[in-house]
Amino acid sequence: MSESARASAIAQNLGLEDVLGLALITFPSIGYVYPPLRMHGGNFAALSTASLLAWFVIALILYPSFFLRPTAQRFLAILLVIYTATFPRLFQNDVIGNRYLGVAPLFIYYTVYEYYRETGRSRLLGPVLLLSSAFLTITSVKTAINLVDNPYLSRSIKSAGQYSEHLLALGIGGYELIYALVPTFVLTAHVALFAPRRTPRYMRLICLVAAGGAATTILLSNYFTALIASLSALALMLPFSLLKRAAAATQVAVAVAVSILIMGFGRPLVTAVLSLVLLVLPAGRTVDRIHSILGAWQQGYDTDIADGRVNTLSVSLQALSDSPVFGLSIVRLTYEGDHLTGFGQHSQILDTFALFGVVIGLIHLYVLFQPFLTKHRMAQPNRGLTVPLLFVTAIVLGWNNAAPAYGLVVYLAYPWLLDRLSLRDTHVHARRLLLA
Asked: Which of 198, 207, 247, 312 would bridge with 191, disulfide CB 3.0–4.6 Å?
């Protein structure tokens, strides 16, 4: 049966519960990438949580075996969400429970993807991702336009405050948007440059424009880590895509070599790229902004930022060493002003170790990175996408706080897209065998 025939059959068999399930996934997904919905949608945090919980109930009723016979990753992801959202509340650390409940989509989007894939209905995710991509694009364009006038606008958006809420209501994104654009850039750049030959030209062109738009917003946003992660992914993507059918040992050796070059020559690499950008851009505020960035690096401003971030991360490491079994969540955390004390609050990975101890920290790592290992084994021709995205995720979640929008792109859009690309690659390979 052809793809179009399968899609038609699925559409004809859609029930009310299927439509409701898709709506329950679509609502929070759009809100994660489109700030006005979060600001004008009432209590979006509660509504999005209730929406995802309702989806789980419907999915459990329709296909109970999917949950009753789970994979290790699926079981641990659900366990992680329940534990991190409830355990801190036993010790009056409700703010920690709320924080991890807020980033729960990071852990469960891959379960959503697996559900539709294993029930033979993964094509239903297409409209969800298409709508989410459209609203992500709207937010990115609106943010980029405003960043030209104020390059620190996205950085000024905090988790609370009237000014931040005003900017979000206008459709301007903060760090959640910028770091969601990093994997978006990786996905779209891969499709534009390295997708199987069967991929339509118009799709490559759309992805090329999308990659350029994401890169522009990242460049204007003044988020140095996001810029480094994007360029690192591109640097890894090139050799892996060229060696996509090489032996695993060769690919690993290339990954190690490229990673060493990136870590050792990150600043010169970015400087060289920005210098090339200056050659093609007309005079204007964007050019002035790039000159400002290069000047700040020459004066050591970025080194000061990096040193400050390392000091912040070391606080989480110290907290882990002080309470390695259960973490800080068993002690009521205190505030200094508006900020919690005791852990760094700038690394999803290290903060989880600090708050919940070694066991939960390791489970957290497994839940985050096991999907990449699974897709790496299953999609050999497209490892040029999997490895760079794994590298990016390690940088972003190791160096920054998590956001649901990142989970939407990495744990729902990425595996879904990889399946589509692998299917096209299989068709191309089969055609070559027939013609041989």
From this structure: 207
